[in-house]
């Protein structure tokens, strides 16, 4: 997708705007395996070169679209550092249709293996499962993107379904579909054993929860406050539970009489009460539908009904796990607002998937370089380094100042 207004800024693109590309050298060997994909006798832009140009786009705010990436390919410094030749706009557009995005998943997996867990509550070290959040986010599309079904012919969108490792602070996998695709169906197709799925209320289908259990995984999911259940046992609350706002902790059969057999074993439900302290600073909440869907309210007080199949963890720790689910929402903001993925580089599902995977790679690279979750400040420093305004020493000094000694990545 090309935006003429956005490309005006790049008309005066000069070679000294794009410098210090050697930071990508450590990553280039992983891309080499892509070089021969979809090869033919007259192909000048290979898959590894195309990915290098997309990564260059993410690390340089000067580049605002596909046309500005093509202009950058004419610079000798870019050609030398990335090992490419001058490419055309047509070749860039064709590449988004020809190359297979799934060939990037092994590269993403290798980067994931190199990431160490961040510093959290020590009790999480005893979890024998990978703590992941799963959610989806919309990427608004053009009316001509016929596959991106959403509201109507004039309002189209794609949806990114993301699995996010909460303890490492990194994305694990993503799928791109039309906006109308079911999030629960997508999760069902990717379920795997040994994971603790932290889910919002959109994933509360009892059939899905039972499939998670049968896959030898677990879940922490929000229910509607008026969810139906039959109490089996009421658990006594500790002082720590009460301090975190836990109202009750129960073992129940979940669902009405008609649906009670959908989940194959008893479930634990925990109700959490909290107060939005932002109102003390003058923040006014928008009117919202009550959790029981019976009336609208502006009340700063909330209750969350959380269901889990984990019977041995303290209720207070379950509430903390659900609060960590917000990390995936922060990543969506990073993905759209900082990396700029609200601007699409391709109109095909294939090309958009490549762009999404490249954004995940950028996030993983920053995570590995810094030992921390990517932030706007660190991203700005890396971009300034590429543009020649920051020296390598200044970038290293910034990174070293961010991470604790015991959290340094190799």
UniProtKB/TrEMBL annotation:
<dbReference type="GO" id="GO:0006313">
    <property type="term" value="P:DNA transposition"/>
</dbReference>
<protein>
    <submittedName>
        <fullName>Transposase IS4 family protein</fullName>
    </submittedName>
</protein>
<keyword id="KW-0238">DNA-binding</keyword>
<keyword id="KW-0815">Transposition</keyword>
<dbReference type="InterPro" id="IPR002559">
    <property type="entry name" value="Transposase_11"/>
</dbReference>
<dbReference type="GO" id="GO:0004803">
    <property type="term" value="F:transposase activity"/>
</dbReference>
<dbReference type="InterPro" id="IPR047952">
    <property type="entry name" value="Transpos_IS4"/>
</dbReference>
<dbReference type="InterPro" id="IPR012337">
    <property type="entry name" value="RNaseH-like_sf"/>
</dbReference>
<comment type="similarity">
    <text>Belongs to the transposase 11 family.</text>
</comment>
<feature type="domain" description="Transposase IS4-like">
    <location>
        <begin position="128"/>
        <end position="364"/>
    </location>
</feature>
<dbReference type="Pfam" id="PF01609">
    <property type="entry name" value="DDE_Tnp_1"/>
</dbReference>
<dbReference type="GO" id="GO:0003677">
    <property type="term" value="F:DNA binding"/>
</dbReference>
<keyword id="KW-0233">DNA recombination</keyword>
């Amino acid at each position: 997708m090309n935006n003429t207004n956005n490309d005006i800024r790049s008309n005066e693109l000069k070679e000294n705007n794009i410098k210090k590309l050697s930071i990508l050298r450590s990553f280039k060997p992983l891309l080499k395996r892509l070089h021969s994909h979809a090869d033919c006798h007259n192909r000048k832009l290979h898959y590894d070169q195309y990915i290098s140009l997309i990564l260059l786009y993410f690390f340089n705010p000067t580049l605002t679209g596909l046309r500005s990436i093509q202009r950058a390919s004419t610079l000798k410094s870019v050609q030398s550092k990335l090992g490419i030749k001058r490419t055309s706009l047509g070749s860039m557009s064709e590449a988004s249709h020809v190359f297979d995005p799934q060939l990037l998943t092994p590269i993403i997996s290798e980067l994931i293996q190199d990431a160490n867990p961040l510093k959290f509550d020590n009790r999480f070290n005893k979890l024998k499962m990978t703590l992941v959040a799963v959610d989806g986010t919309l990427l608004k599309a053009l009316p001509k993107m016929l596959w991106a079904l959403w509201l109507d012919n004039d309002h189209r969108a794609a949806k990114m379904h993301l699995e996010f490792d909460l303890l490492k602070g990194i994305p694990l996998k993503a799928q791109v579909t039309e906006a109308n695709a079911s999030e629960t169906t997508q999760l069902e197709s990717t379920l795997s054993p040994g994971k603790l799925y932290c889910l919002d209320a959109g994933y509360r289908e009892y059939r899905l929860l039972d499939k998670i259990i049968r896959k030898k995984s677990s879940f922490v999911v929000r229910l509607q406050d008026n969810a139906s259940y039959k109490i089996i046992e009421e658990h006594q609350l500790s002082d720590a539970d009460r301090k975190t706002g836990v109202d009750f902790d129960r073992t129940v059969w979940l669902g009405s009489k008609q649906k009670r057999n959908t989940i194959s074993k008893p479930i634990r439900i925990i109700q959490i009460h909290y107060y939005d302290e932002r109102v003390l600073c003058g923040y006014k909440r928008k009117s919202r539908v009550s959790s029981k869907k019976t009336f609208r309210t502006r009340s700063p007080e909330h209750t969350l009904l959380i269901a889990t199949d984990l019977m041995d963890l303290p209720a207070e720790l379950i509430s903390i796990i659900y609060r960590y689910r917000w990390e995936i929402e922060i990543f969506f903001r990073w993905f759209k607002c900082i990396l700029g993925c609200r601007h699409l580089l391709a109109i095909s599902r294939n090309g958009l998937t490549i762009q999404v995977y490249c954004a995940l790679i950028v996030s993983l690279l920053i995570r590995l370089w810094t030992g921390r979750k990517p932030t706007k400040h660190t991203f700005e420093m890396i971009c300034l380094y590429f543009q020649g305004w920051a020296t390598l020493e200044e970038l290293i000094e910034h990174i070293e100042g961010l991470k604790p000694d015991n959290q340094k990545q190799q």
